């Protein structure tokens, strides 16, 4: 729990970065158990709850990532709704594989793929953000977008994103919005990176194990 002091009053609150890191560390334990031979599968509702914390960060990034926020939030919402019917991530993949609808727009497996890209985009953004204090948020976000999302986006979307990068907050503005200092943000961003990467790999393996190539 992080404590922040306002005026003469001290208050405790969980910041968005704290919530993200903690949620994905819980998912990490599931992916680790699976790698060790456990038959435990990742519950869809638990996954969606963790992903919902990332939505807050997209909101803090402004217009440049509005495309990602709108797509990401809607996909998480659809998956959360589906969790009333399907218990695990594996269940929705099995459904779409059986119906040959994995890549069909609106399918749960396609939604999962897009949410996974959103998680990876934030992971790459954090890595770039932490690479040097001289790196502006615009530079960090541009590099992260080019690595993770640009290969799958049309020229129109890429152009709109490039234009929106100029509306990104500064490093200090982002930290203020997240209620963090440089030091506290670095620690929590690294926690998210360490936890999210194995979870992303876990999801990728679910597709690859079903002979689904990840080129979309």
TrEMBL record:
Q: What name is this protein filed under?
A: Glycolipid transfer protein domain-containing protein
Instruction: Please list the residue ranges annotated as the Glycolipid transfer protein domain.
Output: 43-180
Specify whether NAD is a keyword of the entry. no
Q: Which residues form a coiled coil?
A: none
Instruction: Write down the PANTHER family for this protein, in alphabetical order.
Output: ACD11 HOMOLOG PROTEIN (PTHR10219:SF28), GLYCOLIPID TRANSFER PROTEIN-RELATED (PTHR10219)
Matching InterPro entries, A to Z? Answer: GLTP_sf, Glycolipid_transfer_prot_dom
Q: Which GO terms describe its molecular function?
A: ceramide 1-phosphate binding; ceramide 1-phosphate transfer activity
What family does this belong to? Belongs to the GLTP family.
Q: Which organism is it from?
A: Lithocarpus litseifolius
Question: What does UniProt give as GO cellular component?
Answer: cytosol; membrane
User: Which Pfam families does this chain map to?
Assistant: GLTP (PF08718)
Keyword Transport carried by entry? yes
Q: Which UniProt keywords apply?
A: Lipid transport, Transport
């Amino acid at each position: 729990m992080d404590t922040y002091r306002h005026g003469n009053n001290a208050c405790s609150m969980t910041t968005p970065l704290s919530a993200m890191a903690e949620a994905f560390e819980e998912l990490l334990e599931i992916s680790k158990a699976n790698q060790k031979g456990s038959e435990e599968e990742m519950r869809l509702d638990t996954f969606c709850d963790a992903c919902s914390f990332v939505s807050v960060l997209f909101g803090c990034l402004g217009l440049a990532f509005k495309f990602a926020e709108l797509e990401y939030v809607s996909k998480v919402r659809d998956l959360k709704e589906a969790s009333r019917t399907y218990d695990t991530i594996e269940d929705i993949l099995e459904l779409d594989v059986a119906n040959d609808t994995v890549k069909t727009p609106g399918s749960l497996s396609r939604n999962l793929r897009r949410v996974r890209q959103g998680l990876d985009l934030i992971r790459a953004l954090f890595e770039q953000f932490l690479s040097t204090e001289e790196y502006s948020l615009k530079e960090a976000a541009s590099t992260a977008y080019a690595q993770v999302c640009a290969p799958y986006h049309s020229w129109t979307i890429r152009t709109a994103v490039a234009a929106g990068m100029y509306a990104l907050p500064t490093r200090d503005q982002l930290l203020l919005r997240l209620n963090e200092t440089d030091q506290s943000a670095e620690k929590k961003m690294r926690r998210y990176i360490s936890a999210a990467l194995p979870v992303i790999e876990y999801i990728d393996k679910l597709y690859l194990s079903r002979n689904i190539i990840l080129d979309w």
